[in-house]
Amino acid sequence: MAxxxxxxxxxxxxxxxxxxxxEERGLFARQIEEILGYAESIQALDTDAVEPMSHARTxxxxxxxxxxxxxxxxxxxxxxxxxxDGLFRVPRVIGG
Length: 96
Hints:
This protein is mainly alpha-helical. It has three helices and two strands. The protein has a domain of 38 residues: Histone, subunit A (Orthogonal Bundle). Strands 1-2 form a two-stranded antiparallel ribbon. A hairpin with a 2-residue loop joins strand 1 and strand 2.
């Protein structure tokens, strides 16, 4: 595996618009190298006998979808700073 250099960390920091100290640059280079080494070790695993899956859980754990009463309009608008005609009034954010 190629060693992650401080220059690589500098490049990543520029892309992410991060400002790093010299200490952080060295620390991140070591950490990224460890992460990539771990990913490499996972890639080396023999998964031929493992069936492909889309989720880690194989048992459905979702609850039954049952309708419940919602919040009444007046209760929802009770703490609104500027309700109007039964609706929330908010400042214009597009085209305004």
